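Q: How would the structure tokens look for this protein?
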Amino acid sequence: MILAYQQRPWAVAVQLLQSQITITRRRRRRRRKLVLSMDNNLTTNNNPQSKDYLHYNHTDSCNASRWTSRESYVFMYARPWEKVVNFYSNLVNGQTALHHLFGTKTQNIYDNAVVEPSEYVVTPAQKRAGRWARMNFKIVLSYHGGSFDGWQKQPGLNTVQEVVEKSLGKFVDERKAGLLKDKGLPLEGNAVVAGRTDKGVTGFQQVCSFYTWREDVRPEDIEDAINSILPGKLRVISVSKVPRTFHPNFSAKWRRYMYIFPLNAGETDEEDGTIIYDGKTSDEKYSFNDTIIEENLESPIDDDKDDAESIKKPTRFKVSKVNKILQQLEGKLLSYKMFARDTKPARNTGPPTECFIFHARATQVTLPIDTKKGEYLETVCIELVANRFLRKMVRVLVATSIREAAAGADDDALIKLMDATCRRATAPPAPPDGLCLVDVGYNDFDSQTSFIL
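A: Here is the predicted structure in token form.
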């Protein structure tokens, strides 16, 4: 019937008319955008001094004026990030451990210990036939963020998902292999992940799952296949059989992120734990490209105008203040839409923006760089544990909490920012190099297993 319908002349005419209407609408949209752009350019040329700078007008009082978006960006990026990246590389390769950084500040933390919830352990009574007979595997991965363009598979990019799924292709059952061949697609498995990470973000105990109808696949085979692809950049911590009901994302009860913020030489005051910032711009101290900085901010910025209007710019902050600000988020279900970036319009309001943070702490930690040479790096470590996180939420929380601590804001500054009218009220996202997805939990969260108590 469908074929006969398509062969009718009037049906072809209707399709041509619909396509012409679509093309006409697109042309009208382009014209409107062009006219608006020309009007804006004309207004700017006629009134070169009357530019609108979209700084957010904060109404709450602080001891000092907040950094502008540019100043926050420079403060976060002008740091020895390569040392943090190298530390994460050693962490992925098993050459160092996270719990060694915190010493007595953490209890019962073992980096390679993977606890399997009892409801996700396969027992003989759970073995079924039919569609329930397929084999489902839980894979715990460790990968270096600086070596990949994020988790999600994208054309032309080196992503973790692409590498993992290619290695799983040899375990695909015959039926699926035939379907992929008929469609001209490569022989790859399908890996479902607990949470996608951005480019540059390290995953220490990332969780994904893979299923197949083949009964001869063993966990050791999957582990060897993935480990043989990119040694030193991607490593399997464990592979285990789980029931079909297990889903790495929907079954998870919490996620733990760690952010390591490196300090420059001379910024630390050992007497009271104050981080002193010299206030120099990127042009004076670092070779940053202004164009790159502008592209990473959400609005045009005029630092001269902001400096003229501000009374005093902060040059130092205390780690203990950052810790107090973050602690205010614990045990609350709040909407973090102001701390998210690049989200879909449907996820900008309501329950999709709500997250429950179990644990939020900050402390100063000495990072071992080269113990043989006695080289160490002072850092600020921030640990966040929540049931879920929005896009770039952790990085915005880190940058904003440091900005608010430097400005001397109240301890509930982050909660007040949740009532802001736009996302310019929060700071630009911190660099992805310092962020690490530590682990994903499938049991109730226990605060005594935190790194920072």
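The chain is about 30% helix and 20% strand.

The first strand starts at residue 135 and ends at 143.

Upvote if useful.
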